[in-house]
């Protein structure tokens, strides 16, 4: 009985996650893309489509971090000696570049920390 309940709960949670999911991805073209995943009615092989794209993520974007609170997406660029970290407003269908700062380069990961007062920082 426990396995049945656990399986049913997992199926409900999984279904909630994959029904009409919107995704953000980056590419070495320097763009951030918005994608939509729509599952097939038979439960197999859904459709993944590109909705929009926006430039501003440097030459070699390597990591995206979404801040759910501010609806901001941060993109970290791993270009050697000339990297950038960019921020995008993702409240509308097309992400909007809202800021960009140079980094020392080579950053393949970044994360937000601190700032419960809205004065957060990023770590590279």
3D architecture notes:
There is one protein chain. The strands form three sheets. Strands 4-5-6-7 form a four-stranded antiparallel β-sheet, with no helix packed on it. Strands 1-2-3 form a three-stranded antiparallel β-sheet, with no helix packed on it. Mean pLDDT is 78; it is low at 1-18. Helices cover 14% and strands 44% of the residues. The chain is globular. It has one domain. The longest helix has 17 residues, at 2-18. With 124 residues, it is mostly beta strands.
Write the SSE topology.
Blueprint: H1 2-18, E1 21-26, E2 31-38, E3 47-55, E4 61-67, E5 72-77, E6 84-89, E7 96-102, E8 111-113, E9 121-123
Antiparallel strand pairs: 1-2, 2-3, 4-5, 5-6, 6-7, 8-9
